[in-house]
Design brief:
- It contains 8 helices and 7 strands, in the order H-H-E-H-E-H-E-H-E-E-H-H-E-H-E.
- The protein is α/β, with parallel strands linked by helices and 197 residues long.
- Strands 1, 2, 3, 4, 5, 6 and 7 form a 7-stranded mixed β-sheet that branches.
- Helix 3 links the parallel strand 1 and strand 2 (60-69).
Length: 197
Amino acid sequence: MPEPNSKDDNPTEDAARQTPVDALFFKSRNVIITGEINDKLAQKTVTHLLALSQDSDEPINMFISSPGGHVESGDMVHDIIKFIRPTVRTIGSGWVASAGALIFVGAERENRFCLPNTRFLLHQPSGGIGGSVTDMQIQAEQIRQMRARFEILFAQATGQTKDRIAKDTARDFWLTTAEAIDYGLLGSVISSVNQLK
């Protein structure tokens, strides 16, 4: 375990190690989310969003390619997208799945974009249940509540009914770009940065 104030935990030293590429990337107002959604990725993403928000009210572009992951970590990023002043434009690339899709719909529909070869996947939250009978009952209830919240969030984001979301996400629900537009998940497909509004 690293010692407190080690190089990995020292923000001052992290800032001092910033390269010209890091500085240029920050100036670009782009945020990249790739891979599994977890607490470390959420912390890094939220820190980046809050810093960009303090820097300027200009729009932020968030590129997402993720198989999903921890729902509450996705919730954190989703909520911060809505919390900060700058408009966040989410841009899917590769695949946008599960908790990645939850982050994606943090942006308003007109600010949800994707590149041409993106696929989308929605499904109900899942989790392992174990322990005593009482603990398993508590965990099952938490998963039920998570699923109900998921259905409300995606219904609000897409314009579909909660019942439709529940039915469609009972199993893996894959969408092409055209299907994602029809469903209300996606605003538009772009192939060039010049197409961003």
